[in-house]
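Dear colleagues,

For the upcoming journal club I promised to circulate an example of a predicted protein-ligand complex. I picked one with adenosine-5'-tetraphosphate because it came up in last month's discussion. The inputs are reproduced below in full, followed by the predicted structure.
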Amino acid sequence: RPRVLSGIQPTAGSFHLGNYLGAVRQWVALQESHDAFYMVVDLHAITLPQDPAELRANTRLAAAQLLAAGLDPERCTLFVQSHVPEHAQLAWVMNCLTGFGEASRMTQFKDKSAKQGADRASVGLFTYPILQVADILLYQANEVPVGEDQRQHIELTRDLAERFNGRFGQTFTVPKPYILRETAKIYDLQDPSIKMSKSASTPKGLINLLDDPKATAKKVKSAVTDTDTVIRYDVENKPGVSNLLTIYSTLTGTGIAELEQSYDGKGYGALKTDLAEVMVEFVTPFRERTQQYLDDPETLDSILAKGAEKARAVAAETLSQAYDRVGFLPAK
Ligand code: AQP
């Protein structure tokens, strides 16, 4: 079976709809066909200032949400990044292989450091993509299911894998991004020109899956559309409506063309009311399942412990090969 690997940050508490539709939903599907490794990337989470107690709680919360979304520990390996020390170890090697200018071109770093201010942004934030390279290469992943915003980081991963292989001999699988066109980028409900994101979206534009379903319904009903009345998928001219159609279609499995047809002649109000209902039906059981996992932290921790053990077995083998190739003397 081909292998996939991906990760999600435990920073925000609740996952948002973009995280779910852009990434996590694909993770659930891929565990059926792939040897799947998924992790809560707590090392990445400290690239911005964090509260220790909150990080710990949010790490469990992220794992609980992944299970609630449908990850099955019998079908995939679910673990916490810091439980597998090989990530940080391989990241150092990758840091030494990356050009300073090359790392400076990462747009996510540029955006986030601009927000932080140059003196406040950490070196960790700068090397974030290189840690991500190590995450992926350690598992010899063939594919990496992510949203569009991660494409550049996967490109960097490919470049560094090829560079390492070229310089030291074939060691790493060169991975491909796995990005579904339809859900690659879910947009902010209030400003459909920007992606839905925990840092850039306003509360009204961001759907957090763990929020009160009533509040979520309200956000859907007040989503920004346009002054036209036709319900048609047209990203250029009707970005707000198109985003709602994407969300609706993905959550219900109804094709976009079919939705356009069934809403022919109906107004935006009807579409929003129905989508609000679809959303409530989705988030209500999701919240309940997440809570059930949180109520049983022992089971949750034991799932994560088993996951870390399985992950370490793979990661340790790759790391030891990479260490050998770069010329480190084996420890006796
Ligand atoms: N709007 C989105 N549409 C599609 N996919 C998205 N992803 C994030 N936003 C969208 C995908 O979610 C996965 C996890 O991303 P992350 O760990 O970077 O999560 P995050 O930091 O909470 O996501 P944000 O909101 O994007 O954070 P900020 O605001 O900090 O930039 C990834 O696969 C990502 O592509």
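Two points we might discuss: Residues 8-9, 12, 16, 18-19, 22-23, 146-147, 149-150, 185-186, 195-200 surround adenosine-5'-tetraphosphate (CB under 6 Å). The radius of gyration is 21 Å.

See you all on Thursday,
B. R.
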